[in-house]
Amino acid sequence: MASIAGSTMIGYAALGVPVEYLLAASLMAIPGGILFARLLARQRNLRRFPLITSLSPKHRQKALLKPLRQGQ
Length: 72
Fold this sequence. Notes:
The protein is 69% helix and 0% strand. The protein is an all-alpha fold. The model has no long low-confidence stretch (mean pLDDT 73).
């Protein structure tokens, strides 16, 4: 997921980066990874989003990717 691999953490620690900072960065990256996965994952309960259900699958994909491309 959105965390640091153990071997990478050991490598950074060997370079002198404090392990506390690496652990904090690893834990702070998890919510961002979950939010990004929810953005890209297909929603199963689309009844909560009437605008999305009214779009065809092709337009639904464009509606998701267009804001990501524009940086919104």
